[in-house]
Amino acid sequence: MDFKLVLEKLLSGFRERDIRYALMGGFAMGLWGGSRSTVDLDFLVHRDDAGKVHNVMTGLGYDRLHHTENVSQYASPLRSFGGIDFIHAFRDASLDMLKRAVLKDIFGGALNIRTLIPEDIIGLKLQAVYNNPSRRESDTEDIAMLISRHEGALDKELLKQYFKLFQMEDLYVKMVKGDIK
C-alpha cells in the first residue's frame, strides 16, 4: 500500500465531507512510538458518517467487502491502494474516543491526521484480547510499549476503566509496576 498517496486522498475526502474519524491500528501505533508493521489502515468513524465514508471509498475505486452496523471493510483492486477497515462509533465509549482524538503530523509534516490517543488504543487492544485470547501476547506487548513510552502523560483513571471493563485489573497492576515489558 502506498500509505502517503492513500492518506492524501482519504483525508481530503474526509475533510470535504466533515467525516468524524480517528486513525487507529498499526499505523496509529507507529505514530505513538511503536514499531508495528502494517499492511492496511484502520479507522474509527462516527456511525452517522458511514454513508459519507462509503461515498469516499467507492469514489476512490474501493469495493466494500463487508458491512454491518459495527464495521465496514474495503479493498481496492489496485495493490497500491490496499485495504481499509472502519469501526463504526456509536456507543458512548467509542464516541468519546473520537472526541479525544488528536491531530498528529505524518510524512514529515506533509499531512496531519486525527489519531486515537494511547489510552484509547490500549482500550481497543484490551477489547481485542478479551474477544480473542490468542491475541494476548502481541497486544500485551503493544500495550506495555505504549504505557512505557507515555507513562507520565497517560490518564491513569481512563486506563483503569479499560482494564476493569475487560476484567484485566491484574494486568494493569503489573504493567504500571513495569513487570511486563
User: How much helix, percentage-wise, in residues?
Assistant: 40-55%
Distance N terminus to C terminus? 30 Å
- Rounded mean pLDDT score: 90
Q: What gyration radius follows from the Cα positions, in whole Å?
A: 16 Å
Main pleated sheet: 5 strands, mixed
Number of domains: 2
Main CATH class of the largest domain = Alpha Beta
- By DSSP, the count of extended strands is 7
Q: Which segments are poorly predicted (pLDDT under 50) over 5 or more consecutive residues? A: none
Oligomer: single chain
* Strands side by side in the biggest sheet: 1-2-5-4-3
The fraction of residues assigned to DSSP E strands is 15-25%
Indicate the CATH topology of the largest domain.
Beta Polymerase, domain 2
Q: Looking at the structure, what is the overall shape?
A: globular
Return the structural class: alpha+beta
Query: From the coordinates shown, what is the CATH architecture of the largest domain?
Result: 2-Layer Sandwich
Question: Which series of helices and strands comes N to C?
Answer: HEHEHEEEHEEHHHH
Number of helices: 8
